[in-house]
Design goal:
single chain, about 260 residues, alpha/beta, Rossmann fold, 2 domains, five-stranded mixed sheet, five-stranded parallel sheet, 11 helices, 12 strands, about 40% helix
């Protein structure tokens, strides 16, 4: 059984029509929240699944086009915005996909943790290191509770591979194996150069930031003060830069997490 998830945020008056369920869901003006519709495919060919694809829909684009193109195991993520189209699920039904409405809490944010965050629990102890390490483990707990999707990258893998201490390298690799669910294997060199020039970060940090941006993550998580002090410049590219402690505090203020 494969699951296709469909996330949508409605910012203005609109509706999503689900003809197969025989009802129309209407949203009042100014109500903004995430709705997850999980499409569950019951197939006779269990185990024969094509490579999953993540489809992104930006404001002004067609949700219907993504729904029509989606296959079993895919994910459709609709960015914040106003969507007033009626979504017809017939093509999914024709493919053998059934679906149901899950709930508001199922929206998962995509985040990228740079190398220094993954290594934080193994750094020389201090008050700051301890707080950031605890915040890191809280993020991993939230991943288990389906609040976040962690994105990895080839540059992250390369840096972890270069860790000299064998025990630390093995421990970090194990954490990443358990927590990372999506990965950026190709990073644009032109994008990296642009990020470096515009923000003043180091070469390797520009690669991490480019991977996170190209991976359409909402947050770049770091404990590197050199990156954190340049957050305003980086956030012009549509990604938020946070220390793990600050991320947890923000999420708690917004009603997520403890």
């Amino acid at each position: 059984m494969e699951v296709l998830r469909f996330y949508v945020k409605i910012g203005e008056e609109g509706r999503i029509e689900l003809p197969e369920l025989g009802k129309t869901i209407k949203y009042p003006k100014h109500l903004v929240f995430g709705v997850c519709v999980a499409f569950v495919l019951l197939s006779a060919f269990v185990g024969v699944v094509a490579s999953a694809t993540t489809w992104y829909v930006e404001e002004g684009e067609s949700i219907q086009a993504a729904v029509d193109a989606a296959n079993q195991g895919d994910t459709i993520i609709v960015r914040d915005g106003t969507y007033t189209e009626n979504i017809n699920m017939n093509k999914l039904i024709d493919k053998g996909i059934e679906y149901f409405i899950a709930g508001v809490g199922d929206y998962m944010k995509r985040i990228y943790l740079d190398t220094c965050v993954w290594c934080r629990p193994f750094d020389e102890p201090s008050i700051r290191v301890t707080e950031e390490a605890e915040a890191f483990f809280k993020i991993l707990q939230d991943v288990d509770e389906k609040r976040y999707i962690i994105i990895g990258s080839i540059i992250l893998d390369d840096e972890i591979y270069e860790i000299k201490d064998e025990n630390t390298r093995a421990a970090v690799t194990e954490l990443m194996t358990r927590a990372v669910s999506d990965r950026i294997d190709l990073i644009s060199e032109s994008g990296q150069k642009e990020i470096k020039k515009a923000t003043g970060v180091k070469d390797e940090d520009a690669f991490h930031l480019t991977a996170a941006i190209e991976g359409k993550t909402e947050y770049f998580i770091t404990v590197d003060d050199n990156i954190l002090t340049k957050a305003d410049k980086i956030e012009r590219y549509g990604i938020k830069v946070r220390n793990p402690v600050d991320l947890n505090l923000e999420e708690a203020e917004n009603g997520y997490g403890s």
